[in-house]
Amino acid sequence: MGTLVVGLALLAVVVLIVRSMIKDKKNGKSLQCGGDCSHCGGHCS
Length: 45
Known about the structure:
Structural class: mainly alpha
Oligomer: single chain
Largest sheet: none
Number of strands: 0
Distance between the termini: 47 Å
Number of helices: 1
Radius of gyration: 16 Å
């Protein structure tokens, strides 16, 4: 039972992280430069 609860909590955290990454990507932010495209070395479009 404890394993199931911990597994579900971990899954919820992963889903929230992925959701945040997708939202950032849609808003033009990038993991490489953090949204500051003047200093990212050309990784941003």
